[in-house]
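Troubleshooting log. The previous structure file for this entry was overwritten by mistake, so regenerating from the original sequence record. Sequence copied from the archived sheet and checked twice against the printout by T.R.
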Amino acid sequence: KEGENAPKAGPPPAVMLVPTTDAKAMLESYKPKALDGGISEITVPNEGEDTGYVAVVGKYVAFAEDKAALTAYMARKGSLDKTMSPEALKAFQTNDAALYANVPVFADKAIKTLDDAKQSIGMMMALAGGIQGGDQAAMQQAVIGGYFNAMKQVLTDAQAAIVTLRLGDAGGTLGFTGHFKSESTLGKLLVSHKGVKSPTLDGLPAGDFLIAGAGSWDAASFSDFVKKAVDEVLTSPDLEKVESLPQLKKAAEMQIQSLALVSGAKFAFYEPADTSKGWLRGVMIYDAADPAKYQAMITKAFKENLAAGMMTDPDIKMETTIKEDALTVKGVHLN
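Regenerated output below.
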């Protein structure tokens, strides 16, 4: 738009609240000039001298670059903290800093931005695929599409996102919390994990490890969630002409079946004494409902070399060698 009513370019109007025990002393250097409605005009030292606006609100000083924004804030009705959930308020009360994102307010615009980005990237990849050709380009298209759909699912299901920072003698703790609609896809997944036992590092060998981790989940709901995500990628129109699609589907199906048997995993990586045979050595332990069935399923997948079928780059070759009963730990044979 043109003319006097055209919106100004730049960031949206904002009001910043600064806690203080002495508002008069804080504002003294800004040379406040009283206006109407409890608002004062101040001079902000910069490369030149910018004009700003302030108002004392209880134990806070409200700063704004735009007088209309500060006037609107002063005329507010109700308090934001009265509209937040107890969980959200707790994040502010128990941390030194917190950032709350009210996702439903901006989700539609964010999804539109994702759709535009997906289309632009898709066009560039289609052009590259026309030059490059082959199954690899098609697989990349399908996977990128799956990533964008996953981000849209998060925005659709989320009610809020909270980032927190807490400082202490031991250092800083950075946290992230997401709240999802109870009947949404992600909401149902999270609800199913309420009774899941806490992960442990039991069974992992001691030593100078590089990194270690553990996780627990509800096997049925998690494998179903993964299945839906994988199916979305494998049913993409981009993969219709991929020659290895049947083997891709077979490998994915076996992975999901094995995932349905597992309710947790733990791992640790160590630096090997002889780096000529690799840069890492590690141990991974799965919490399987039926260990024998799980081992048989994974062994079968390796014997049929299903992982090789998932490689769409013709320049990468994969071979698998299986040596059964290669290691025995306390009478248990490990492959």
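The two ends are 70 Å apart (CA to CA). Archived copy saved in two places this time.
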